[in-house]
Specification:
44% of the residues lie in helices and 16% in strands. The chain is α/β, with parallel strands linked by helices. It has one domain: Divalent-metal-dependent TIM barrel enzymes (TIM Barrel, Alpha-Beta Barrel). The protein starts with a strand and ends with a helix. The structure holds zinc ion.
Length: 279
Amino acid sequence: MTIYFGSAGAPDSFYGAGFKSSLDMPAWLAGQGLNAYEYQCSRGVRIKEEMAGELGKRARQHGIKLSIHAPYYINLSTEDPEKRLKTKGYILDSLRAASWMGATTVVFHPGGGPGDNRLETFRRAKVCLAEVLEEIKAEGLDDILLAAETMGKINQIGSLEEILELCQLGEQVVPCVDFGHLHAVSQGGLQGIEDFALILNKITDAIGVQALKTLHMHFSPVEFTRAGEKKHWTLKESHLYGPEFAPLAQLIAERGMEPTVICESQGPRLRMHWHLRAL
Ligand SMILES: [Zn+2]
């Protein structure tokens, strides 16, 4: 049973240790006993083919599974033709970078507020994603998973139900379940093991038990208000905020899952890693 466990981008402790280039991340992560790295293109896909290839090579050397976080500017539901074109470009660029580095998964935010008519906004998002999937196929990039992330604000497209509906557009689309976000939109709803089980059951119903097994997840403590997510916390204050990882770890073991768990903050990441190793 392999659980992939790693970092979103390079943490402060990496730079604090004197490293500057993300090319050093695979060796650094392996040194920490971690085996996944989500390369951040959240502010744009700027990585060049040569560097991406080198990162991929080093990741393979050190047994690190790679994913990419696509730009935050993606907005599948936009009505602006220019922004729509750009949205497709961000997704395609991320997939190209993923293929250069041998990343298995591109995570993206569907983007966009719900407007006056959430159903209609969501319908536009589905149409746009279906079109992008055609372009992706034409370019031969359909072997890389596109993971639509559950969002942390209520006034954002990206509820668990919406994400699972996007997954119906094709096998390439899978969910990226951000448990901190789900905790925030449910006002602290992730408490006991049954709360986590309910989420895993919904996912299984929508995409099947095999896709659940290799689920891509984000897990960080999160502070929230009535609107949802306010802030992802790191090391020091993380004990003040949920969700707790222990119930999910138990379910991962019980269901024989081999997920990829990406954590944004160092302290919780290491604690979670120890927890999983104890299973
Ligand atoms: Zn994200």
